[in-house]
TrEMBL record:
Pfam families: SHMT. It comes from Goodfellowiella coeruleoviolacea. It is an enzyme of class 2 (transferase). Homodimer. Its main location: cytoplasm. This is Serine hydroxymethyltransferase.
Amino acid sequence: MHQPAISHLAASDPEIADLVEAEAKRQHDKIRLIASENYVSTAVLEATGTVLTNKYSEGYAGKRYYEGQQFIDPVERLAVQRAKDLFGVDHANVQPYSGSPANLAVYLAFAEPGDTIMGMALPSGGHLTHGWSVSATGKWFRSVQYGVRKDTGRVDLDEVRDLARAERPKVIFCGGTAIPRTIDFPAFAEIAQEVGAVLVADIAHIAGLVAGGAHPSPVGHAQVITTTTHKTLRGPRGAMIMSDAAHAKALDKAVFPGLQGGPHNHTTAAIAVALREASQPAFQDYAHAIVANAKALAEALVERGFDLVSGGTDNHLILVDLGNKGIGGKPAAKALDRAGIELNYNTVPFDPRKPFDPSGIRLGTAAITTRGLGVEQMPQLAAWIDAVVRAADEQDEATVERVAGEVAELLAGYPMPGWA
């Protein structure tokens, strides 16, 4: 059953309660390889369900537009201070509702509509809000995009520098959603400084790795850092913006009143809890275990003939090009889901297929590491993925069902926060 228990919900709205219980069981029963997902602790779950959700708190601690903030202000101050301490930054804003609004606040703070901005192209691993054409950021600003080399699958920083010199962007984003390699923050900082741009490091995917010392930090290189608070950081669905002192005031003004009203205080409390958890020595072990699992899984997939973008991984994320397997990413992902292995289909650089039916799949190891799986399980996981991809191509549903049973048997020995 779901933990914490939802007995009052079950009595009040059994339909929703049944769906919550079913989702909790589904999360328990599947190997969750979606790179943007994780399991939060029971403490984080409890914080998100508190009476803090009842309180309106427009403004910032000590400068609110509503009374009754005697206990809300200390909650937000704790979250802010813990973010500053954990990441070693001058300033932190913990109010953004999610990663996309956090990035929008950056534009509001440092650019005007029509200004040139620069980010990684979505098909190369960037994010929609880094100026991609279908996003508001690609419609309201003049966006120039960099990508990766076809032969290496990695960013060519000389090309980035040439593009920045030619286009002179106001803002440069580094980071993204499908980047399996270490981000060279010092090199991006050098380029941004040369052209007079504000460098923004979007570390939504790797924030937990940065906090745990398993990925280099952008602090001291990027003036502004945006991140979600879930994914590898293992907090609630929320976001933060961190910065040096010089850019703090503009960012705070952009978040409130520029983009949003009252913060979600229950989320702020859960962020504070997650940041405290991430400051413990055990979290450093966790962050390094994520990377170790990803490297082991990548190696096992390569041994089975899978083509990995950039040839492997330095972090939690693996991007697989299934072009040599004779199957698209979408049917492969759906078959794997039926087999108890949850991931997402994804475009790969220079993908000849359409985004809704791409060539790739994206995997991440943050959630399975939370469950306690280690490098010794990664060859078996690769074997299951290989078997199911082959079965999907051959319409062999019996193999899919067999793997589903074996996955369930394995996971029975690995407890999940939120399900008992």
